[in-house]
Specification:
The protein is an all-alpha fold and 467 residues long. Among the domains are: 71 residues, no CATH class; 115 residues, Leucine-rich Repeat Variant. Helices cover 64% and strands 0% of the residues. The chain has 26 helices and no strands. It starts with 6 loop residues before the first helix and ends with a helix.
Length: 467
Amino acid sequence: MRTWIPVSLIALALAAYGCTHAPSRKQHAGVEKKHGESLAALPATRKDRAINGAAKQPSEEQLKARLTQLLKQLASDKYEDREKAQAELARLVKQMPESIVSLKRAHREAEDPQVKHVLQSILKPFVKWALSPAVLRAIPDILEKLESGRSFALANIVTTLGYEKPEGSGPLLVKLLENPDSQVRLSAAMALGNIGYKPATMALRKMWQDDRSREVQVGAASSVARMEKDENAFSFIVKSLQDNAVNVRKTAAEALGKIGDKRAFEPLIGALKDNSADVRDQAAWALAHIRNKKAIKSLIGALNDSDANVRGSAALALGYLGDDQALEPLTRALRDHDTDVRIWAAAALGELGDKRATEPLIKTLKDENEDVRGEAAGALGQLRDKRATKALIKALQDQEDLVRDIAAWALGEICDKRAIKPLIEILRDKDEEVRSTAAKALSEITKQDFGEDYEKWKKWYEKNKDE
């Protein structure tokens, strides 16, 4: 079953538990991620399960042939081919759930660790599994057989190790500190800080001092500072916010957020004015982690940034910091021209928890984009304001499965008895997960449990509706 989780919590959890970079709005349609992060590190959400579009369905033979072609393309030496194949496979799974069985079989049979990991990433929202033991066992082999152009796969898996924290990953990550690819070394250094593997401290200190990549030095210093509270490492990272290279400044901003030292506040406020949108984006996330409410004014200003990613990160940071000064600016952001910013603004208002956001969020249930409508429904569920009941009941008739699903969940959170009859009716919904969510919502409201049995719920309602 898909489990809706507020996207702000997802995003901040990802940033806290080891993603090399903060999540993007630009690939949202399912809360996907940017900068080569591991999709396998991403918790399942309702939007991950969304049906995208109503394209004509291919025949069974056509589907099989296309899957075979895409699976071969995943093993290509060309990054562009692999990226296109992964994106198309992800779309196919959302549009045609019957393809899941074929992809699960392909995942079991795949000998190429890169292909196995990508398939696991694609299937993650549909199948509850931890990091595959096969993938973990394959990492040393990937290291030995690393080919030009495949380092992205290794960096991807390494990032996932930092998130999943499987037993025995520390020594593997230490070995990867010597990898020839700087992104692999950076991912390994940051992952070691995430899992808190102190035997790596000496190697990380050496990397901080000697690595040929300044970005990797910053990543290593970040883990040293986190594990050892090293003042020199912290100072080095702060100084790196002024580096000429964008990637170095971006990594420094991320590192300061992970460390969480309040002394980083002023440097990060300055980074919000960096000439690179990537650095500004990362600075907004870092300020959320430092949790200094003095950042509110600057983050409100960032809602007017020219870059949509920065505006979205500022919105979520404001929701996470939880100050009512952010209410009006976030409400305005619900009308942003960028779809993804509207999504994150709705998520932030849910996190903010101020019931004055109820009416604006109700209006947002009419947004042209289903992901925005879904996020607004989720935020209303977080607010638990019964003024939203009528609008959420109407949302149970939305044409998109994900919106009906989240609306049902939200009604269960609000616990308004007016929702009982409409929820019973959608136990006959065409989407099995909408039905499952409706049954759970009914149990929340009534404290009864008839599962998804429409007739039993209807009989109970007729007997108790006047109470």
